[in-house]
User: Which sequence fits this backbone?
């Protein structure tokens, strides 16, 4: 009795080969060549033009005059972004590192990532708008999230994310100080100015809005303390706000410089020490008869 052989699916190797080729375009960790740079440049240009169209569409005279153009451009961009998202999910199993190698669970794990979710969110509002579901203004606002797709290939944003991740504890401590100062100063302003200006400082949340203006040294002028104690409190809150924001900018600056130093050291060329017995030009070992006279000279 002969063994039965299961025939392979036709063109399975052909599709796998195409999938591996396309995965290089969508792999953020793969080496960049001219094709990948051109693809990323064209995609970034499409995102910028699409976001500009979304902004201009809110101007009523422009929208009324070029309504057909805006509609066609939005549908074309939505089709391109949807195809990009589907191709990214399809080629996820061949990405560098093999983290998403499983045909099903690997793709699902990839879809839970930050940038795949951004890709999905940038497509869904337009699809809902085409289907006529949802508020048009909200959907138009959500379409502006496509700008976040530009951060995928930006080294500056990658550097900033690394700074925020490494300095998370320090930033959290400064944010806690700001929230504590905001709450305490708002409560004190309500207690001090509530009787003097009941229509302005009529609640602690309203007084906290004054505290935000004072902490950030904006001072819109819509809420101004009238009592001497209130003015003294405003001066103290302004000083605390300036100091806290200075500390915040200092933490970000130091973290940014440390990340720059780390990346430069990581990408710096490794010095190679050349032995005196090896010719630096051809790489062959020199004979002792040639080395000793050169050393004595």
Assistant:
């Amino acid at each position: 009795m002969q063994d039965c052989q299961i025939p392979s699916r036709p063109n399975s190797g052909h599709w796998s080969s195409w999938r591996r080729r396309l995965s290089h375009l969508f792999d953020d960790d793969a080496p960049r060549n001219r094709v990948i740079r051109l693809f990323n440049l064209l995609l970034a240009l499409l995102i910028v033009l699409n976001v500009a169209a979304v902004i201009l569409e809110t101007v009523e005279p422009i929208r009324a005059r070029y309504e057909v153009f805006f509609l066609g451009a939005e549908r074309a961009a939505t089709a391109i972004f949807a195809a990009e998202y589907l191709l990214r999910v399809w080629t996820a199993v061949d990405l560098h590192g093999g983290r998403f190698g499983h045909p099903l669970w690997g793709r699902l794990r990839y879809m839970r990532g930050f940038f795949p979710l951004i890709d999905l969110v940038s497509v869904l509002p337009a699809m809902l708008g085409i289907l006529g579901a949802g508020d048009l203004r909200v959907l138009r606002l959500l379409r502006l999230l496509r700008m976040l797709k530009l951060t995928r290939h930006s080294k500056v944003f990658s550097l900033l994310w690394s700074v925020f991740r490494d300095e998370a504890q320090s930033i959290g401590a400064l944010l806690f100080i700001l929230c504590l100062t905001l709450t305490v100063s708002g409560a004190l302003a309500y207690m001090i100015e509530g009787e003097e200006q009941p229509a302005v400082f009529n609640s602690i949340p309203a007084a906290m809005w004054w505290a935000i203006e004072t902490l950030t040294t904006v001072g819109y002028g819509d809420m101004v303390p009238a009592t001497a104690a209130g003015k003294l409190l405003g001066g103290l809150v302004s000083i605390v706000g300036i100091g806290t924001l200075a500390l915040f900018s200092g933490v970000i600056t130091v973290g940014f410089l440390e990340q720059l130093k780390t990346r430069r050291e990581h990408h710096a060329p490794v010095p190679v020490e050349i032995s005196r017995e090896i010719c630096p030009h051809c790489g062959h070992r020199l004979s002792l008869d040639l080395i000793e006279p050169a050393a004595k000279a």
Notes: The radius of gyration is 30 Å. The chain has twelve helices and no strands. The first helix runs from residue 12 to 26. Confidence is low (pLDDT under 50) at residues 1-10.
